[in-house]
Specification:
Radius of gyration: 21 Å
Strand order of the largest sheet: 7-6-5-4-3-2-1-8
Structural class: alpha/beta
Strand content: 15-25%
Bound molecules: alpha-D-galactopyranose
Number of strands: 16
Helix content: 25-40%
Distance between the termini: 48 Å
Length: about 375
């Protein structure tokens, strides 16, 4: 087992897509350390698609693109490790990766060995160009087998986009995270869409095998490979809070070398990250927002944390401000419990104690997340 809590790191795809190269990777590694992202928990630096040459070498091994990565991948891995970070790479279970580079179908064992020899610590494994007659389940098992036997601890990140009932079999494969939807885009509609698709996945989301809601778009501001539209800072904060509450891996996707202080504040907020990284890794509970198979636009999520606290998030995805009351009954308490809750607002450094629940107005596209602790009721 490589990791029990949702993996955290940075991935090249959202901003750089085809244009990834050594210089970007090394300077991103520097930034992860310098800007305190490693300290905040972001440890994996992952190169997504488009890193390879079009052809394997004579021995059937994958070859890094010579112009983009002139010193090869061992050099990149060594640099990343020297910074205290871990190194991730990408392949697919088909003949080709999604962008058309050679992929691992029927090369699973040789590729796992190659990755291990370079010092890879994380593999994102996509689902493009596989033979349609072969189930993704079987190919995911095969790569997992190869990784387990490659002689190195490599975190397995499966990327089947929620297809082929992946939620039902993913735990068997030993994958640590699994993509549950198609690709994210840097706009509010995409964030809402991915969140709506999560309702059915929660029973399958938990310790050591986390439902991956895709790389974060926080801070992209409409720039880069999936930068289609951009979001407001409030929307990015709501996006980050949703991914945290729902136990998603937190893989940054913006160009962190050029992020603003406001963006840095969002992605390094220790209290919201602690809710995501809670060691118990419990499934979040939906208290409001999905009735009779229909999505509403105001959501209340809660999650029991190790040690007895409860995280509660209210998410207003509506286009207007909305009043909300989260009563103790909804959180499992009633008058016989003889307890009150202290609500700590993790984004605004404020605390309140209420006798029967919390009442507030949530602005459009905004959210509140509270860490709640039980206290005795004082008459
Ligand atoms: C698929 C994946 C993306 C990204 C691209 C790369 O679309 O879902 O996350 O890895 O492939 O080509």
């Amino acid at each position: 087992m490589v990791k029990n809590t949702p993996p955290m790191g940075w991935n090249s795809w959202n901003t750089f897509g085809w244009d990834i190269n050594e210089e970007i990777v090394l300077s991103t590694a520097d930034t992860m350390v310098k800007e305190g992202l490693l300290d905040a928990g972001y440890e994996y630096l992952v190169i997504d698609d488009c890193w390879a040459e079009d052809e394997r070498d004579r021995d059937g091994r994958l070859v890094p693109n010579r112009e983009k990565f002139p010193h090869g991948m061992k050099y990149v891995a060594d640099y990343i490790h020297s910074k205290g970070l871990k190194f991730g790479i990408y392949s697919s279970d088909g003949y080709l990766t999604c962008a058309g580079f050679p992929a691992s179908y029927q090369y699973e064992f040789i590729d796992a060995e190659t990755f291990a020899s370079w010092g890879v610590d994380f593999l994102k494994y996509d689902n493009c160009f596989k033979p349609s007659s072969i189930p993704a389940r079987l190919l995911t098992h095969r790569m997992s087998f190869a990784l387990e036997n490659c002689g190195r601890d490599i975190l397995f990140s499966s990327c089947c986009w929620g297809t082929e009932s992946v939620k039902e079999w993913i735990k068997e494969t030993g994958a640590h995270m699994w993509r549950s939807t198609g690709d994210i885009l840097d706009n509010w509609a995409s964030i809402k869409q991915i969140h709506y698709l999560q309702m059915d996945y929660q029973p399958f989301n938990g310790q050591g095998c986390f439902n991956d809601m895709d790389m974060l778009v926080v801070g992209m501001n409409g720039q880069g490979n999936v930068g289609l539209g951009g979001c407001t800072l409030t929307e990015y904060r709501t996006h980050f809070s949703l991914w945290c509450m729902l136990n998603s891996p937190l893989m940054l996707g913006c160009d962190i070398r050029n992020m603003s202080d406001d963006v840095k504040k969002i992605i390094t907020n220790k209290e919201i990250i602690a809710i995501n990284q809670d060691p118990a890794g419990r499934q979040p509970m939906l208290l409001q927002g999905f009735r009779n198979g229909v999505h509403e636009q105001f959501f209340i999520w809660a999650k029991h944390l190790e040690g007895g606290d409860l995280a509660v998030g209210v998410f207003n995805l509506l286009d207007h401000d909305e009043r909300v009351f989260v009563g103790y009954d909804a959180l499992g308490l009633d008058h016989t419990s003889d307890r009150v809750l202290k609500f700590r607002d993790v984004w605004n450094d404020r605390e309140w104690i209420y006798r029967d629940g919390i009442k507030t107005v949530v602005p459009a596209h905004d959210c509140y997340v509270w860490r709640c602790s039980l206290l005795p009721y004082e008459k």
